[in-house]
Design a protein that fits this description.
With 323 residues, the protein is α/β, with parallel strands linked by helices. It has one domain: Rossmann fold, CATH 3.40.50.1820. Strands 3-5-4-6-7-8-9 form a 7-stranded mixed β-sheet, sandwiched between helices. A two-stranded antiparallel ribbon has the order 1-2. A two-stranded antiparallel sheet has the order 10-11. Strand 4, helix 2 and strand 5 form a beta-alpha-beta unit. The N and C termini lie far apart (56 Å).
């Protein structure tokens, strides 16, 4: 009898935790080249997209009972990687509660980072990151109200683009500011109206995904083919620049132009460059430049990392902004 009671009591916490899971999201479906004007071989992930499941194996959640500030970190187009976890661990050591996760695995698709970054349409990756990011903020507010009086979103690359859309999303009263590191202008575009402060920054050498070594990310005018139409998201510049509206030669705004437009609208936005850095500043590595070839044969420059000491200095500056 005593053994039976022990087993029942031991099982209770497991049952309570299981009821908090939201793992009933259907697996997202990949499709190839079926959109207007898109050539075969480009993969899409169709809606609906997963929200946030705290029981997903990719979730890294750290709660600091002494802090009222929660940092949600959004990865880039290749999924959760050392650059994402690198900045997340810094926020954790600085005393904040931190949430990180892989939005692609949240959608129950397990592929490597190169597949996501080089073979999947940027609109699909951007949407997955945005919708799981939005759901994660709502989950944090509901389940950790005392620890999330102030919420900060830090997004890298495509996650930085998604972060700007979160800054334009209604109903996120506790979201206080957004950091967008190296946001791309392609995929889900950039929002028309910001509701929260946004801090945009790039490594001065950030040519990530460029066709030449000096094609810098913030000056890139991507083809409208690489934007998806709006889908249950804040209105943005992708509404008139996407694969459905595309005609030959159509290209969208640069991030630099978008920032200037936001400043003209009196948005609370800053824009700066980091000396001695490239893309993925917090990946823990010195600057490294590679040339990768996509499945369609396009060569792209992938320069990442930062010179020693640069990430440390930048993080101290971020803390000053927060505090």
């Amino acid at each position: 009898m005593h053994k039976f009671i022990f087993l029942v009591l031991l099982g209770c916490p497991m049952f309570v935790w299981a009821t908090q899971c939201e793992s009933n999201y259907p697996a997202a479906a990949l499709s190839q080249g079926t959109k207007p004007n898109i050539h075969h071989g480009v993969n899409f992930v169709e809606p609906p997209y997963a929200g946030f499941d705290p029981c997903n194996g990719s979730v890294d959640l750290k709660i600091n009972d002494q802090s009222d500030t929660f940092v949600v970190v959004l990865h880039g187009g290749g999924g959760l990687d050392p650059a994402t976890t690198g900045i997340g661990k810094r926020f954790e050591k600085a005393g904040f509660s931190v949430l990180m996760f892989d939005a692609f695995k949240m959608n129950k698709i397990s592929r490597d980072g190169i597949f996501w970054a080089a073979s999947v349409h940027a609109g699909s990756t951007g949407r997955m990151i945005y919708f799981s990011g939005l759901a994660s903020i709502k989950w944090v507010m509901k389940n950790h109200p005392e620890r999330s009086q102030k919420i900060i979103v830090y997004g890298l690359s495509t996650g930085g683009t998604a972060a700007t859309h979160l800054a334009a999303t209604d109903g996120l009263d506790r979201l206080k500011m957004v950091f967008a590191e190296g946001p791309a202008n392609a995929g889900i575009g950039l929002p028309d109206k910001l509701l929260k402060p946004v801090h945009v920054f790039y490594g001065e050498l950030d040519n990530f995904g460029g066709s030449t070594a000096d094609e810098f990310l913030w000056k890139r005018r991507s083809s409208c083919l690489w934007n998806s139409p709006s889908y249950n998201m804040p209105a943005g510049n992708n509404s008139k620049c996407n694969y459905s509206t595309w005609t030959r030669g159509d290209r969208g705004q640069t991030v630099e132009e978008w920032v200037a437009e936001q400043k003209n609208k009196n948005a609370d936005i800053s824009f700066r460059f980091i000396d001695g850095a490239s893309h993925a500043i917090f990946n823990g590595r010195d600057i490294n430049s590679l040339v990768r070839t996509t499945p369609s044969g396009i060569k792209l420059y992938w320069t990442t990392g930062a010179k020693p000491g640069v990430a440390d200095k930048l993080f101290d500056e971020l803390l000053t902004v927060i505090r």
